[in-house]
Here is the input.
Amino acid sequence: MKKISLLLLLATLGCKQQILIEESLSPTFGIVIHGGAGTILKENMTPTKEAAYRKVLTEAIKVGHTILQNGGSSQEAVEKTIHVMEDSTLFNAGKGAVLNSNETIELDASFMNGSNLDAGAISGVSTIKNPISAAIKVMENSPHVMLSGKGAEDFAATQNLELVKPQYFITDRRVKALKRVKAQEALRNKPISSAETSFLQHQRYGTVGCVALDLEGNLAAGTSTGGMTNKKWNRIGDAPIIGAGTYANNATCAISATGWGEFFIRSVVAHDISALMEYKGFSIKEASRIVIHEKVGGLGGDGGVVGIDAKGNVAMEMNTPGMYRAHMDAEGNLNVKIYKK
Amino acid sequence: MKKISLLLLLATLGCKQQILIEESLSPTFGIVIHGGAGTILKENMTPTKEAAYRKVLTEAIKVGHTILQNGGSSQEAVEKTIHVMEDSTLFNAGKGAVLNSNETIELDASFMNGSNLDAGAISGVSTIKNPISAAIKVMENSPHVMLSGKGAEDFAATQNLELVKPQYFITDRRVKALKRVKAQEALRNKPISSAETSFLQHQRYGTVGCVALDLEGNLAAGTSTGGMTNKKWNRIGDAPIIGAGTYANNATCAISATGWGEFFIRSVVAHDISALMEYKGFSIKEASRIVIHEKVGGLGGDGGVVGIDAKGNVAMEMNTPGMYRAHMDAEGNLNVKIYKK
Here is the structure.
């Protein structure tokens, strides 16, 4: 109705303007992903490693883009896109997740549907191949939003999800990383090299996430992670916390965060970006900039977010030297990036 | 400095106005508590039971009020006030907490300091006598914000906290309530009486919480709960989620929530109230009203919040027939309430 009235109103204004109006009101779609933020520097990368990341980011986003292009839901696009990153050993989610201080893995994930504000999350699981799907099952088939540990696994076992042994997730790279972090921890307050500091900082990151807008105008957000290397005491980070690591609301935006989780919980990052859009009328870019740089940065934390709004505008904001990320719009334009600049 | 300049500026405006300005800038303090919202109806209460609730609410709030009056911190006031409610079997927190479907208890708690946005939380513990103190220890003595299950207990064991056997928390009343809920669950979709429906709804609630403003102008919020009766799969509700059940920020307010946790997580209740104050300039009362009635209520959820802002203005808002609650201001005026009206 709105579109027709506007077209009638503008019929006298000439063909070019009519097309512009039509474009801005036509359904659109889009998808944005991240594979973790951190001290990702060109000088520490090899061309082979960089190509490997670009390949998986491209493969992942194309899975979701194809779903959206064919009229599929943002929920399905987010879930299937995250599967590709969870199944890749390059990212700190699913296979290839970081190890906790007990040399085991504890995976966290959350999902939110912007059309009805329904949400699901799991924390501390080690036998569910694709944690993002378990989070979605919690949302769809349990009366709860968040399940944890053994209970989350018991629930998942009733949901036709692919289960694996914890060993499935463990990779040599993460075993070595844990040893290196523990060796540094043993040194306590002794000085360590700046290269080692950079390595240690990097062990906090690597979460994957996806946000999408589908042709129905529905937003969705999902986040999946292994948390931080050498984490202790069944620590829960921001990734499975609705409002912190993940938030989606058709009225504003869909956000997935990655970074130093403790600061992202304290800043309620994903919901704060939404609130700045809802209550101040800020764009997704401006809201993301304020929350990442002024709020999280102001507390001394770092990381990044990806976001998309109901018109397909996107944000890929970070206060770290890099963030593995990609955006693909309705026209099929693909933008894969690693470094800040 | 601000106060002195204003007084100088206004020195010529006459005594009355000067006193008004002085009052509004003088340090004040205040404290608000809740012991759960729900279908609390006068017709289901006995005078004895009502008196018992009023007695513990009064005792609890006076502990915190005395701390604040003597110049103690809002953090200490919140912690010690919540101890009284955790130690009472009347509330669903600490001793007297509800039972999960495995006939054991799993306690959750969180705390946030409004002066530096520091926060701590624990979920799913069953051996820590006062969970709110464990949440504070996570904030003070760990690099993390949120710990869960066995890990949270291992951490607590290093923190000089009083540990107890799980049996300590279990009361006859909650054992009977679990049996009654399970009996209804076994009936599945068969019709149940409205009295039983009311009973079942009530088993979702009973969380305790406290918010306080101290003479230094610092806000703090804490929440402690046993969750919901017959909960399954290591469910985590809103109480230990920073942004949902608990939030404090000197720039806006301190909030503690109680209600049907799943809806409070999806609505990011505590942070949304803060955001409405920060970004729209709403009062704490108006912000709480919108979030409880329009946001949570709009999704079909129910419960309530207590809040206090940096000037000592308070909110005690609910969309349930009642909420155990009390407020005490700097002048020592005490207001203890149970029913909505």
User: Anything to note?
Assistant: Residues 47-69 of chain B form the longest helix (23 residues).
